[in-house]
Amino acid sequence: KQWYQRRVAITAGIFRKNYLKPYLQIIESSPVYPLITDVNGTVLSLPPVINGNHSKISLSTRNIFIEVTAKDRKKAGIVLDTICGAFSEYCTTPHTIEAVEIVQADGSTFSSPKMGSRIEEYDSAELCLKSGIKTATPEQLADLLTKMCLRASVAGEKLKVEIGPTRHDILHQCDVEEDIAIAYGYNNIPQVLPDLYTIAVEQDVNKLSDSVREELARCGFTEVLTFSLCSRDDVSVNLRIPEAVGGAVQISNPKTFEFQVVRTTLLPGMLKTASCNRNMPLPLKLFEVSDIVVKDTLTETGTKNYRYVCALFAGKTSGFEVVHGLLDRVMLMLDVKDYHIQQTSDPMFFPGRGADIILGTKKIGHLGILHPEVLEKFDVTLPCSVLEFNLDPFV
What we know:
Order of helices and strands: HHEEEHEEEHHEEHHEEEHEEHEEEHE
Strand content: 15-25%
Largest sheet: 7 strands, mixed
Shape: flat
């Protein structure tokens, strides 16, 4: 009971401090809180939220105990090595640090910090070629790396590089090549023309997108550019399709509720734009040609981009005939005849006022009058009709 009361008091005190709130999500769902105390029971730190006043460093401090807490031990070790390396320069005996023995919950122990180094071997000729310094000798490369706090030695045509505990950023040979170029000076690297000549061309999907944008603008629609991120509800509950959030790419640590997932449709951004421009002359005729992202297990990244076209009409009447005519105009411009629309039961549309766009035998989009509940969720007071379809099949 005493510990529970102490925890409640700690939590209440933390929530009163606004600048600590960003860190609370790390431990607020944990059944226990990490607490670091000294031998007398004095609280030194409540990681990762706040440090205790008892252990505050002052100008007279001579002995410093460094502790790093994290969910990932490897990342914690990187931070600890970097801090210890920086502090050790100012020790009584420079570049010395006292390790501590850590006893884990299972009784096992290990020494920290590790402050270990690793030796990597690289081909000197390849380093010269990749960094653009083709005339450098292995000895010159070793001197350049020494300037970047990487101890290097020549072994024939090879270069042995010792990567110290403060250079965890060196992950690959390209990182070593970058350090060589920095030490040599980017402006000192001779400029040469590439051996392979290419002619830059616009990607087909972008060229087609620009053509569609021009056509929609000629039809009296105004282009908007909305955020690629939105809330989970925007792509699911607010569109009366709760299950749609399962196909959205989630942001692991969103800074705000407005940016939790990558959009799977352009419609939420269009409706928010209409809501913010209610005082503009009617009707509102908006369009956007941009990418949406969905999950795809067949790709290397697990996601896939699609180029979508979305147009919205908002006025005193629903304007279904306007977006339907706009679809016909775009298809005429694309010289597409093998398409038709068929009624759909999509819950985002008013019953009996929605249709799927079928190209051949495949659905590529939809159009219809939005359901009043959808409009209410986005604070839109005008009846709206929307057209949205995938542009990729026409590339």
